[in-house]
Amino acid sequence: MTHNILNFEEINQEFINWFCSNGGTISSKIAFKDYSSENAGRGVVAIDNIQPFEVLFNIPHSIVLSEKTSSLKDLIAISEFERLREINSWFPLILCMMYESQKENSLWRPYFNILPREFDTPMFWNEGDLAELEGTGVIDKIGKADAEKQFNEHLLPIIQSNSSIFDLKMHNLELFHCMGSLVMANAFQDKIPKKKIKENEDKEDEEDEEDEKDDVTMMPMADMLNHKTGFNNARLYCDKGLLEMIAIKEIKKDEQIYNTYGELCSADLLRKYGFVDEDNVHDIVELNGQFVVDTISIDEDTKDRKIEMLLEDDLLDDIFVLDTTYEISPELIITAKIMRMDKVQFNKLQKSKKFPDPKMNLDIKQPLIQLFEKRLAMYKTSIKVRK
Ligand SMILES: C[S@@+](CC[C@H](N)C(=O)[O-])C[C@H]1O[C@@H](n2cnc3c(N)ncnc32)[C@H](O)[C@@H]1O
Question: Residue ranges under compositional bias (Acidic residues) (predicted)?
């Protein structure tokens, strides 16, 4: 990601002045830090020891950027926003950001100045670099062509028919990709939990959520925090309408302050945020269901009937997942056992409707090893090469 690194400190100060003059507060124990040497852009660091539950900053609702706060809402019919939302829940916010980012006297000018303008996500990679992702399944999920089609069909007509608000020279596809990438990497979409952590810090599922908050929004300052799997030490909470970033554990001086972007596998981290974590307990390998049955099946005559039966009983998934517990799911074991049956065995099963038990046995061990080796061979590079 690229920022206007030349005047890093000035941009920070301008942003902090703006944030505080609009009612935000920032603890004197934190500061911005340039993590570009780690390829992580700007982040937030503790400049003093911080105790659990300390408030790191709070964000006034008036500077949360959304279709409800952007001045575009006064210039465009609400029905346009509703129509856009039906196509894609991010589009109203993306359009507002396209507008506010180019507006001379936008309330959010210092905020846009601190946000990156170039991104490391695969959306912006060239073909040679994308080829490195072969086998990961990321390439199919980038969706660049689809996003461009949707821009042309749904956003461009609004831009073109409102020439007093928009200028096609700046409100173009490039700006759409830039704002879309910011929404993907920075926006908050999930409901913000209510602060109950002091009494019940471990009981996440008992936390209420702030009811009114499920729009897609940009939260200045909250999105300055980086993520590192397993190192989350701060979280955003909502307490009586107040948005507060709170330390969820002790943070020592000089440690980076990390929010969590979720329990994401490497493919999702890369696709949405443009980075991966070396050690990621949430990492997975996806095995396409069709690939599994095609590889394991031993009898063409009964193959389709077997697939039909597995689908009916929700045993055959579109995607089987292998995770870092290295356990093979009961569904995959049963699918493998059925696909390895000969005609006689399968006919018997169809009559009895008695499915094989989901335990590993010698009949399927070797076919599964071969399946995993075939899946592994789909990756163009190996971990050894990467390191
Ligand atoms: C919500 S923003 C965080 C602030 C951002 N670093 C900045 O400079 O504006 C999310 C982006 O930060 C970067 N980022 C976050 N955590 C990272 C990490 N552990 N390693 C590399 N980049 C990271 C990625 O570019 C990601 O898309």
Answer: 202-214
Between residues 50 and 191, which one has the greater pLDDT?
50
> What is the 261 CA–ligand 1 centroid distance (Å)?
10
Residue 211 has pLDDT above 60, yes or no: no
Buried b / exposed e along 200-235 (16+ C-beta atoms within 10 A): eeeeeeeeeebeebebbbbbbbbbbbbbbbeebbbb
Chain mean pLDDT for the chain: 92
How far does residue 228's CA lie from ligand 1's centre (Å)?
9
**Which atom in ligand 1 lies closest to the alpha carbon of residue 277?**
19
Taking CA atoms only, the protein residue closest to ligand 1 atom 20 is 40
Report how far residue 293's alpha carbon sits from residue 296's, in angstroms, rounded to the nearest whole number. Answer: 5
Rounded CA separation 262/229 (Å): 9
pLDDT, tens digit, for every residue of 267-321?
A: 999 999 999 998 999 999 999 999 999 999 999 999 999 999 999 999 998 999 9
- Cβ contact 30:44 at 8 Å: yes
The pLDDT of residue 191 is 79
**177: nearest Cα among 198, 155, 193, 160:** 155
Q: Is the CB of 91 under 6 A from ligand 1?
A: no
- Residue 214's pLDDT band (boundaries 50, 70, 90)? low
**Cα four-point dihedral sign 300, 302, 306, 309:** positive
Which ligand 1 atom is the nearest neighbour of the CA of 114?
9
Distance between first and last Cα of the chain: 22
- pLDDT tens for 78-106 read 999 999 999 999 999 999 999 999 999 99
186 touches ligand 1 (CB under 6 Å)? yes
Architecture of the domain whose range is 5-273: Alpha-Beta Complex (3.90)
Q: What is the mean pLDDT of residues 216-245?
A: 94
| In the chain, where the domains are located | 5-273, 284-386
